[in-house]
Amino acid sequence: MSDTLAVPASLAVRNMLGDTLGREVTVNIGNPLTQKDLPTATVAIYVDSSNRVAAVLGMDLKLAAFAGAALGLLPVGGAEDAIDDKELYPNLAENVGELCNILTGLLNKEGAPHVKLDRVVLPGESLPNDAQAHLLALGRRIDLTVDIQRYGSGTFSLSLA
After folding, report:
1. What is the model's pLDDT at position 55?
2. Cα distance between residue 45 and residue 127, in whole Å
């Protein structure tokens, strides 16, 4: 058994998002989230069996809104309104929180340490310093531009501790 997590391949991210959202998803190498993105980002914090931060996933407001709408089979207009209002509406937040839980499957592989979703930090909520540091750090990470068919695109950043 390895004692470290592996950064998922972009293909694995695309496949899991496409399967979960039930529509075509394309991914391309993108830029990481930045400090200025964090106040409106949705951030999922994953912990190991010792409750230490193992990975941090961030989605900018656009991706969180589009993914939340796609998962709930909601019209794209609601996601666009949320983006224009610079807030993630509760129904979209609930859906994207569920998506973050499903994305735990990108991290849990046979022979690797088991991680679980600890919590989801929504736009406007305080992001713990350690999670923020992991999300913005260089190192073992993947940064993608994710495009969800008939919805839109946004930034996906996953950083391993």
Report:
1. 96
2. 10
